[in-house]
Amino acid sequence: MSKIVILGAGISGHVAAAHLRRKLSKEHEVLVISPNSNYQWIPSNIWVGIGRMKSEQILFPLAPIYRKKNIGYKQAKVTTFHPEGDIEVAKPFVKIEYVNDEKKGQTEKVTYDYLINATGPKLAFDMTEGLNPGTNKAYSVCTYTHAEHAWQALNDLIQEMKQGKKVKILIGTGHAKSTCQGAAFEYILNVEQELRRHNVRDKAEVVWIANEHQLGDFGMDGMLLSYGNNIMKSSEMVEMVFEDRGIKWIIGAGVNKIEDGIAHYETLDGEYHTETYDFAMLIPAFSGHGFKAFDKNNEDITEKLFKGFMLVDADYTPKPYEEWSVQDWPETYQNPSYKNIFAPGIAFAPPHAISKPRVSKNGTTISPAPPRTGMPSGITAKLVADNIIDIINGKKELHHKGSLGNMGAACIASAGYGMTKGSGVSITTYPIVPDYHKYPETQGRQLGKTFGEIGLAGHWLKLALHYAFIYKAKMKPFWWLIPE
Amino acid sequence: MTQRISKSKRFYMMNPIIQFFKFIWLSIKIMLVVAGGHGGTRKANN
After folding, report:
1. Is A202 exposed, middle or buried (CB count within 10 Å of its CB: 0-12, 13-18, 19+)?
2. Per UniProt, what is one Pfam family of this protein (chain A) (predicted)?
3. Which residues does chain B have within 8 Å of residue A464's beta carbon, measured at their own beta carbons?
4. Phi and psi angles of residue A29, each rounded to the nearest 5 degrees, phi first
5. B35: closest CA of chain A, how far (Å)
6. Which residues of B touch A436 (CB under 8 A)?
7. Residue A142 β-bridge partners
8. What residues of chain A lie within 8 A of the CB of B4, using their CB?
9. Contact A234, A225 (CB under 8 A)
10. What angle do CA A229, A444, A401 make, to 5 degrees?
């Protein structure tokens, strides 16, 4: 009998738990530890942030599902890792602290045979002075509660605009190294459409601010994609959409301080600027959780497990951008020091960025961090689950591999909500990390598999995925037929 | 605001009948890309 402990119940942790439970017999224990009581379908947060969906539509409580499916669940946060056990406990364990009402503050040592670290990122608002959701007129859509607050503030502003007030809305990244530009991109297009729906578009100046050196970089070095019969750069596609919607943009901008209605930022040319606003939605930097790890003698071994995020089978040798390759990226997400620990999804430490790093004249790195959200999180979680099952069944090697350099991804970006007035920008990319050796003439990606489409069908598709993935996450009949 | 999308293209983008077929086409194409498999990179390139 084996005990598999999964830290986190986001897309990655939940997918791993679901597949492990489905494929392993009942003698094996699957236990999820998460401080969150609800599962949330994060890609739909942007619709909560424009008031077109309620939080209840994008979340459900975890405990009843896990109880029904015979998956253990503790509402707690992990505090320290002990991969060799300690003087009292021979088996490896994690120390957890309960956060639910009945046991709040109590700690426990939870032993494991296999550990999946799917703790995702820490939303590091504190890395930007003054950036705290709901203060200084700046908001976030990173969680459903943040998105609810964003909608309340935006709705208040729309009411003021209906009285004739002219406003400026600033949306984008709130730190020089933020990632997840895609979410901000979706939000700005949705907000712009909602302003038109409320007949107040002429009262608002809508501005995009981002750490990308070019529009459409998305932390992926941009992409060359098929668009109808044409071949287009993602920068051209986003520029076309922004100009058509009357959205202005500031790029190569590292936001470093937020005051009440004022964003301070530095640009790649080394200049310092400010931008005023009446409502802002800024994505923070993502960071690791700052976990500590200890050996059996209680010596600090954090560097064997973490480099901000968790170390896995990547090549972390520092090297210049010109020498980066897809082979640097991990394939199995297994920790090299402790083979029974894995880190799929956002929890693994990337070997380097995907976009070319850029530094301002003042030495400030202003460059997007690599995105690892959504679909790749699900795929990497499933392959980790499959490898653990193989090991339990006696296989010696890890056969399931999934490098971001050999994996496609779809980004269905909502560009406005509505069954007849909605729109979506559908982009697929293959591979996620560009392979400049394999596809030297198409910016590291395979055309055809890397394509873009804009239109109403994109909105329907995003909506269909919303319902399909919530169905899947609830583990309803034949859920496993829906791909990650 | 600069018109960057022509009226005919906009009609194509927002016409529910055309977009219904586009929805089917996109669903299949995206499925082929994302469910088309994944793997490592090291052995294949070494």
Report:
1. exposed
2. Pyr_redox_2
3. 27
4. -100, 130
5. 7
6. none
7. none
8. 240-241, 243-244
9. yes
10. 115
- The CA distance from A324 to A337, in Å, is 24
Average pLDDT for residues A91-119, to the nearest whole number? 95
**Binning pLDDT at 50, 70 and 90, where does residue B43 land?**
low
Contact A130, A261 (CB under 8 A): no
**What does the DSSP assignment read for B16-35?**
HHHHHHHHHHHHHHHHHHHS
DSSP string of A188-217? HHHHHHHHHHTT-GGGEEEEEE-S-SSTT-
Length of chain B: 46
- Alpha carbon distance A380, A313 (integer Å): 13
Select the residue from B34, B43, B46 to test the A interface by mutation, using most A Cβ atoms within 10 A: B34
> Which residues are CB-neighbours of B37 under 8 A, at least 6 positions away?
none
Q: Which of B1, B39, B44 sits opposite A246 (nearest CB)?
A: B1
CB-hemisphere CA count at 13 Å for B2? 8
> Which tokens belong to A433?
């990390």
User: Which 8-state DSSP code applies to residue A483?
Assistant: -
ipTM of the complex: 0.92
Tokens for A16, please give them.
């791993």
Mark out the alpha helices in A204-326 (DSSP H runs): 234-245, 302-305
User: Tens digit of pLDDT for each residue in A12-22?
Assistant: 999 999 999 99
Q: Are A345 and A12 in contact (CB under 8 A)?
A: yes
Chain A residues touching residue B7 (CB < 8 angstroms): none
Q: What is the mean pLDDT of residues A155-165?
A: 97
Domains and CATH numbers, chain A: 3-123+287-401 (3.50.50.100)
Weakest mean pLDDT among A177-181, A197-201, A325-329 = A177-181
Residue B39 to residue A410, Cβ atoms within 8 A: no
Where does the pLDDT of residue A179 fall: very low under 50, low under 70, confident under 90, or very high at 90 and above?
confident
**In the predicted structure, residue B46 carries a pLDDT above the cut 60:** no
